[in-house]
Design a protein that fits this description.
- This protein is α+β, with helices and mostly antiparallel strands.
- Helices cover 39% and strands 18% of the residues.
- The chain is built from 28 helices and 31 strands.
- The protein is globular, with a radius of gyration of 29 Å.
- Its main location: membrane.
- Pfam families: ERAP1_C, Peptidase_M1, Peptidase_M1_N.
């Protein structure tokens, strides 16, 4: 038999023209019959055999069939193509390496509109990877035995690694999956199990005598599981897992759909939260979309090695363990929130992405943006006290305003002319900007119109493909029924300005205080100021609040023709001594700059005991705008820091988080300069009051532990206080860690409050010795909870010992080390982000790029994130020049991360420009505000006590630039 096998070889390179990265579309699939047999055994190198029978229809006469295949061998003499009454000969088999096109030349033309069966046999060996069909492993806590499992990750273009197929989202088909595997394992797939059999389902193509040569086991050790025929779906949604996992059933009263949560046997007790959240969210979405979930079951499974957070495969959602499993004894409140958010996100995809799918990856945002937005609604429904609608909106918008201010950003709907670069757009623009724009539509259209239009869209395009214009049409139709948009504009006219253009606008607002009017102009906002000329303009929804207003105001519009060539006049009701506030509910992602007098009116209110007169989201918007405008010299830092001074009285987490995030950008560019001490002193004065009254490390316990936002407030203020060397913060952290080290049976008894552990671990390891590091490493090795492992993984990077960091980085690219491949990028970015680790992490990247690249094979996006993390810390032209020279010499490693690299380079230039233009001024202001005693800065002087605390730190490795 082996003499008849042809390993598919690369065809000669082709000259690719426009659109040649896509399949020609001459034949289209309607059904796949996929039969697979796997030996889940390292002794046989995880060998497998497969055959796929594809039902095809020819759209025109054609003498070849082109589809995708990758990473396996095809038996040429066993390929067949037949119709009901004819058999065709395959005269040639070629594979184009560039786009993985498998081309089958035929002896004559197929007939238009006739149906054909294409049978393709193949075989190979599974790899220890993170995409396609791959091997994962773990050590069972109870048996101490190493267990192996098979998992899949086909999005975006890795289904072709599982079996030959038409691996583009537009080619939807039904699937019948049949998997042969060892009897002691269990197989699950998209659909319910139909029947199990001891008969070799591949016998006609791969007789057992042939497979046994590779498997080395008798057929009696195997079983073949056949699953029900699926609904029509894209190839990237096909999934199966073969494992020895256990499962729990969800309470049947929560959903009419059967739910099962799968995990390692020794982690099955961590599934109870997912088992209740999943069906509740699914039931909510059925009501929200008014479309019934079309499958009879929904499995959710936690995979030990998984590159993404989760994957929305229809009927079998796969998760990283931290995104599905929750242990109330070892998982923090934020871990619990993360589980709920990811479950809601993936279940939202069952409608947006699975039921209706984008035609091509250019409209990925239709999948990810909707799932991100709707996830907040799902979490809000099952956990209403978390206020996910506001917190997720703020988080998304802040991320968008940061990334989309770069010239190197990209539109939401972006042209993808090379499938190998699809992974680059799985970023904040597709997810978070997409979500932000969908939220914007729901707000200006109204929930009723919005939901009706979504229902119509989902029904009309069920089991098919759509693009954004299809959605715009449904939204416009419903909006017109309800009275229409302003000036009879269509949703497409409005939204194309947001989805087809890069960036977002800044509005310049100038008030006429004698006439109760103002003028508005718009242009694109950029982090590098006015260095880039653009004619971009937007349809901007204006939510405007005057100081005297006591209720929400109607949305007004600034069209894409207004405020561009000349200022647009707008009337309002505020008196000359009252402020006017734009975007008070953050309806859309844009920035606003006011005249000096209006800024001062806003600052005066915020720094008084009437600051709550400004709505919470309005306070978020003001803080974000003020710091961003000051960064680009559009607003003076005196105004910005005066506004920020009110944060010491802020009781709401969202504005406090926004202000501290904005200040951390200043910390990022000062932390390796002699001026860092001035920043720390400023932060001590700003944060100390809030830190001491909130709880957290100030009291060495979490107060109001059932209130998520209170917990977040305590965690964030504690983290900031320790970074700023607030007296007692680090000392309390060290005491808690030492108490843990001295506890009998520390793996079962951890006295550190759950939500403070990430801070305590990092402080103790940073300030401690190798003894502390090894203690944390051992605890990580012993814990069975992924969330606890993840906290310790990041904390281990906090060490200031070079040899430890060197060892840790080496582990990140070494198979079989303490660092799983899914966590490799997290380790490297964490080390690079740390104060001391930056220097060695940079050298590690520069000197070991080839090894890193090989270790990250198939994870180009992770490598791009590492580069962005490094570049974001550059503050000198010398650092950037050094990088550019290195990058030029190693550019072949970044073909799938070019966008990330260009964004990182631009961020480095933004930092460098700030240092040159603003450092001296800002440091003077920080020192000035650190010494001012005023109503805005109440509290006793803390300079001497802070200095005393710093000099009494036990570690001898403090940087000199942290001293005041």
């Amino acid at each position: 038999m082996w003499g008849t096998v042809l390993c598919v070889v690369a065809a000669s390179s082709l000259v690719m023209g426009e659109g040649e990265y896509l399949l020609p579309g001459d034949v289209i699939p309607s059904h796949y019959d996929v039969k697979l047999a796997y030996d889940v055994d390292p002794n046989t190198n995880f060998s497998f055999f497969g055959v796929v029978d594809i039902l095809l229809r020819a759209k025109r006469p054609i003498s070849k069939v082109v589809l995708h295949a990758q990473d396996f061998t095809i038996a040429e003499e066993k390929i067949s193509l037949r119709s009901d009454n004819d058999v065709y000969q395959v005269t040639g088999v070629d594979l184009n390496d560039t786009y993985n096109f498998l081309t089958l030349q035929l002896d004559r033309e197929l007939k238009e509109d006739d149906s054909y069966h294409l049978t393709l046999p193949f075989f190979g060996n599974l790899k220890l990877g993170l995409d396609g069909v791959y091997i994962s492993s773990y050590v069972d806590k109870d048996t101490k035995k190493k267990e192996y499992l098979i998992a899949t990750q086909f999005e975006a273009i890795s289904a072709r690694k599982g079996f030959p197929c038409f691996d583009e989202p537009i080619y939807k088909a039904t699937f019948s999956i049949n998997i042969g595997h060892p009897k002691d394992l269990t197989a699950v797939s998209n659909m319910p199990l139909k029947v199990s059999s001891g008969d070799n389902a591949l016998e006609n193509i791969w007789p057992w005598e042939v497979m046994q040569q590779s498997f080395g086991k008798p057929r009696t050790k195997y079983v073949w599981d056949e699953f029900d025929k699926s609904v029509p779906m894209s190839t990237y949604l096909v999934a199966f897992v073969v494992s020895s996992f256990a499962y729990v059933d969800s309470p049947p009263q929560l959903s009419s759909t059967k739910f099962r949560i799968w995990a390692r046997n020794d982690a099955i007790d961590q599934t109870s939260y997912a088992a209740t959240v999943g069906p509740r969210v699914l039931s909510y979405f059925e009501k929200f979309f008014n479309v019934t979930f079309p499958l009879p079951k929904q499995d959710m499974i936690a995979i030990p090695d998984f590159s993404a957070g989760a994957m929305e495969n229809w009927g079998l959602i796969t998760y990283r363990e931290t995104a599905l499993l929750y242990d109330k004894e070892q998982s923090s409140f934020v871990n619990k929130e993360r589980v709920a958010e990811v479950i809601a996100h993936e279940l939202a995809h069952q409608w947006f992405g699975n039921l209706v799918t984008m035609k091509w990856w250019s409209d990925l945002w239709l999948n990810e943006g909707f799932a991100t937005f709707v996830a907040s609604l799902g979490v809000m429904n099952v956990e209403p006290t978390w206020h996910a609608d506001k917190s997720y909106a703020v988080s998304n918008i802040m991320s968008v305003l940061n990334l989309d201010a770069l010239e190197s950003s990209h539109p939401v709907s972006v042209e993808i002319d090379n499938p190998n670069r699809i992974s680059e757009i799985f970023d904040e623009i597709s997810y978070r900007k997409g979500s932000t724009l969908i939220r914007m539509m729901s707000m200006f259209l109204g929930e009723e119109v919005f939901r009706k239009a979504l229902h119509n869209y989902l029904i009309k395009h069920s089991y098919g493909n759509a693009e954004q214009d299809d959605l715009w049409a449904e939204l416009t139709q419903e909006a017109q029924k309800a009275g229409g948009l302003t000036a009879n504009v269509t949703v497409k006219e409005v939204m194309d300005t947001w989805t087809k253009q890069t960036g977002y606008p800044i509005l310049e607002v100038q008030r006429d205080y004698s006439e109760k009017s103002l003028t508005i102009s718009q242009k694109r906002y950029l982090s590098l100021g006015g260095s880039f000329r653009t004619n971009s303009a937007w349809w901007v929804p204006l939510s405007v609040l005057c100081e005297r207003d006591t209720m929400a105001q109607d949305v007004h519009w600034l069209s894409d023709k207004e405020g561009v060539d000349k200022e647009h006049r707008f009337e309002h009701g505020a008196s000359p001594d009252e402020w006017v506030l734009f975007n008070y509910n953050m309806i859309a992602p844009y920035r606003v700059n006011y005249d000096a007098r209006n800024w001062q009116l806003l600052v005066s209110t915020l720094t008084s005991d009437k600051f709550t007169q400004v709505p919470v989201m309005g306070r978020v918007q003001l803080l974000s705008d003020a710091f961003a405008l000051a960064w680009t010299n559009k607003l003076d830092y005196a105004t910005t820091l005066q506004l920020a001074s009110y944060l010491q009285h802020e009781d709401d987490y969202l504005p406090l988080m926004t202000g501290l995030n904005a200040l951390s950008k200043i910390e990022n560019v000062l932390k390796r300069t002699p001026n860092y001490g001035a920043y720390q002193k400023f932060m001590r004065r700003l944060i100390r009051r809030t830190y001491e009254k909130s709880g957290g490390l100030a009291s060495k316990k979490i107060l109001n532990g059932d209130d998520l936002n209170s917990v977040k407030m305590q965690v964030r203020t504690s983290s900031t206080a320790c970074r700023a060397k607030v007296p007692g913060c680090e000392e309390n952290a060290i005491q808690l860690f030492e108490q843990w080290m001295n506890t009998k049976n520390p793996d079962e008894n951890n006295p550190i409050p759950l939500d403070l552990r990430s801070i305590v671990y990092c402080v103790a390891i940073e300030r401690g010795s190798v003894r502390h590091w090894r203690f944390a490493l051992e605890r990580r090795r012993r814990t069975n909870v992924a969330a606890a492992k993840d906290q310790l993984l990041r904390a281990l990077s906090c060490s200031r010992d070079i040899w430890i960091l060197a060892q840790y980085l080496e582990w990140s690219i070494t198979d079989g080390s303490d660092v799983r491949r899914q966590d490799s990028a997290s380790v490297i970015t964490a080390v690079i982000s740390s104060d001391i680790g930056y220097y060695y992490g940079k050298e590690f990247l520069y000197s070991r790029i080839e090894d890193i690249y090989k270790a990250f094979n198939g994870q180009g996006r992770r490598l791009g994130n590492i580069i962005k993390t490094l570049l974001n810390q550059f503050t000198t032209q010398r650092e950037l020049d050094e990088f550019l020279k290195w990058y030029d010499q190693n550019s072949e490693y970044f073909d799938v991360a070019k966008l990330a690299v260009s964004q990182g380079i631009e961020r480095a230039r933004v930092n460098i420009a700030w240092i040159q233009q603003n450092q001296a001024l800002v440091v003077d202001k920080l020192r000035q505000y650190s010494h001012i005693e005023s109503a805005a800065w109440r509290g006793k002087p803390i300079f001497m006590s802070s200095l005393y605390a710093i000099h009494n730190i036990s570690s001898h490795r403090l940087k000199l630039d942290q001293m005041v």
